[in-house]
Design brief:
By secondary structure, this protein is mostly helical. It has 14 helices and no strands. It has one domain. The protein has helices at residues 3-23, 25-49, 53-56, 61-66, 73-89, 114-136, 143-158, 196-217, 222-229, 231-235, 245-257, 268-274, 277-302, 312-329.
């Protein structure tokens, strides 16, 4: 890539981060989910209906848009979360109807103020550069999710928030000390999805589904896209909707990582020839459970005791993708599918 094109990508990332701030972090990510689904359906249709890819072309909806500088969560979601932290640090973030720290309100658009757009844009550039560098160095984890986490940690430092929050009792979800002390109130990421048995249960359920979708389609990202698209209900205020993209992604990836050959060569026929369905279900359940538990651990350590939004699913995906990369490097899996490996 030429220097001019690289600079153009930086400009586009600035615009993507600013757009994420304008419409809100979670709305931008939800729309990315719809683009992932569209891109995966397109690729499946191309593979099955027109195997000659050159005749149909490769639109690149997933890589260029959903995971790129337009809607990539490391760009748009990170920019939106940073802009919310910026407004909260100035006491200007709306708090009506929101019980948590104002900087955690990532479901609302932040409008078109030039300073808000600039903050979102700058953090969009950071997320883009971080993910690009991570992928270029083949660091063994999801570069996009890592960009989301790094961006959140950076906005905490830049805008004067504690990096983690409470210095003791990080795993304790008790709302406040019974003795009336000054301990801060705990703010669970999803109050209806924070007890370990409930987390494990949804991890197994969504993991089975993620593994099944990968087995039947050969897609590592279709179940993830569906999980993200469902967040439209969370953003609309529908109660008790589980968040599962950090569950379905490692579940689907693990199933395909157990199949020899590159991801592009995986079809339902080759997968079925290499693995019985029960193994895919078991792998999906196991890695779905892992993703769910890592998500709950991440929210307890990085979200519940802090003042800004650091996305627990993104932290979980960093850890679960690292586990898949390690298993591939150790020879347990034939490959790591889409996860970079040195």
């Amino acid at each position: 890539m030429s220097a001019v094109d690289a600079l153009a990508l930086v400009v586009a990332a600035f615009a993507g981060g600013a757009f994420g701030a304008a419409i809100g972090a979670l709305p931008s990510f939800t729309f990315a989910g719809f683009v992932v689904v569209a891109g995966q359906v397109y690729q499946l249709a191309q593979r099955n209906l027109a195997p000659d890819a050159a005749a149909v072309g490769n639109v690149g909806l997933v890589d260029s848009l959903a995971f790129g500088v337009v809607l990539g969560p490391h760009v748009a979601f990170g920019g939106g979360a940073a802009a919310a932290a910026y407004l909260a640090s100035r006491g200007e973030m709306p708090t009506e109807g929101f019980a948590y720290s104002p900087a955690k309100r990532v479901t609302t658009g932040l409008g078109t103020r030039p300073d808000v757009l600039a903050v979102g844009g700058l953090f969009g550039v950071f997320g883009h550069l971080f993910a690009t560098a991570s992928a270029s160095l083949a660091l063994p984890f999801d570069p996009v999710a890592a960009g989301v986490v790094a961006s959140a940690l950076l906005h905490r430092v830049v805008f004067g928030f504690d990096l983690v929050g409470a210095r003791d009792g990080l795993l304790d979800m008790t709302p406040a000390r019974a003795d009336g002390g000054t301990a801060r109130t705990v703010e669970p990421w999803l109050p209806y999805m924070t007890e370990w048995p409930s987390v494990a249960a949804i991890g197994l359920v969504a993991g089975v589904l993620g593994g099944f979708v990968a087995y039947r389609t050969g897609s590592a990202f279709l179940a993830f896209g569906l999980s993200v698209a469902i967040l439209v209900f969370v953003n609309s205020g529908v109660e008790r909707i589980p968040v599962t993209h950090h569950i379905t992604l490692p579940a689907s990836t693990a199933v395909l990582a157990a199949i020899p050959g590159p991801l592009a060569s995986h079809t339902p026929a080759t997968i079925a020839a290499a693995m019985p369905l029960w193994q895919a279900i078991a792998l999906g359940a196991g890695f779905g459970l892992l993703g769910a538990l890592l998500g709950e651990l991440s929210q307890r350590v990085l979200y519940a005791h802090a003042d800004t939004h650091l996305d627990p699913p993104a932290a979980s995906i960093v850890l679960s993708s690292f586990c898949i990369a390690v298993l591939a490097l150790a020879g347990v899996f034939p490959g790591a599918v889409w996860v970079p490996t040195p």
